[in-house]
Structures are given as C-alpha cells and as structure tokens.
Amino acid sequence: MRLLLVEDHERFAEFVKTGLEKDGFTVDAVTTAANADAAFAAVAYDTVILDLGLPDADGLSLLKAWRDQGNSTPVLILTARDGVDDRVKGLNAGGDDYLLKPFEMKELVARLRALLRRPGGTLGTVIEVGNIAFDTSAREVRIKDKAIGISRREMGVLEHLMRRAGRVVPKDVIEDKIYGFDEEVSSNSVEVHVSRLRKRLTASKANCVVHTVRGVGYLLAVESADDETL
Ligand code: CA
User: Fold this and answer.
1) Sign of CA dihedral 86, 93, 137, 1
2) CA 9 / ligand 1 centre spacing (Å)
C-alpha cells in the first residue's frame, strides 16, 4: 500500500514514516501543501495522512480542493488541534477519520487499516487466491495454511498481483506501489522481486503461477486442477 504523509514537522514525519514502513506501507513524505498537491496529482495513493497546520496553506483547504475534484482517496487527518469544531470541520471537508497528536503508532496503523477496509477502500483483511492466503493486517502470507518467510518488496508485489488475480498488472504499476519517491529503483528490480517470488511460490507448493506478459507486466493465475495432480 502506498501512502502520502503530509506533515511539516520533519522529525515527527520521519518517525511516522519509519513506523509505517515497518508495517509494510510504502510512504512518501512531504512537508508543504504545494508538494502534497503535486504528489497527489502524480501518484494514485491508497490513502493520505494529512496534518492540518502546514506552513504554506491550511490542510483543510487542500483536502476540500481534492474532494471538489471528485477524488475519494481515504484521508486520515492528523492534528494537534483538539477542539470539537476542528474535528467537525475536518470531517465536513471530506476527511474519513481523525487522529489527535500525540498518538501511538499502533493506533495509527489500526486506524489506517480500518479506513482501507471500508467499502470503496482497497484493503481487505485476508485475500485468497488458490492456496495462497495474504493477511493484510498481520502482513503474513500462508501457503497451504503454512506461514512462509517473504521480504517486504516481494510481499508488495504479491499483494498487488493477488488483488488483481487473473488480470495483467503493468510493471510500472507494481513499481509505483512498492517504491516511494526517495527510493532508488533499478530498471530490473521488479523482475528480480518477481523471480524471487516465483521461487518461493514453487518451493511452498503454491498452486498459483506468476506469468510474464511480455512488454506489459505480470499476471497471477491459479493452475488448473489437472496440473495439480501431475
Ligand atoms: Ca503542522
């Protein structure tokens, strides 16, 4: 899951980003409303964490502008303002949830997952394709009901392939979802993760195969029952 963190307090933003990355999120952090707007226009984020007090504009006007454009990406508002009025204003401007500072990382993560599970959101708790089960809350992959060891990037690739099982997922979409702005992406890195993922799936006797669609991307498909008996 790729998310945009809009927070002008840099050390705090770094702390939140690090915490979320440990939980499997890919995080782009920006410190101004202008940069937030530019990032939001360039990337299809799964969710946004928005601080209201920004140096160049009010987070609320930014949110209102996004909603006026018809964008329904879930937005969690983060702020030190604790007045009921601010909370109401935030939700009226199109915020989906509200978290007051200070908070604990585990509460932020729980709220984000709840937000993404709502109808229209993109996150379910357990996605199943063939004999693979992906628990998006626990960040655990089970094949034939046994948990397997898997790296964060491979997990990111698998998650997107599973969400669109049976359909081609373009390579640049996968790349976009598993890397943030500040991460180096070598041109063959998605191939490398896919190749490792394939080996893991085979080793764990998954009945799903990652097919390469030349020049486009990848597709996860369940092998037929006939293949299973071979
Ligand atoms: Ca602030």
Assistant:
1) negative
2) 6
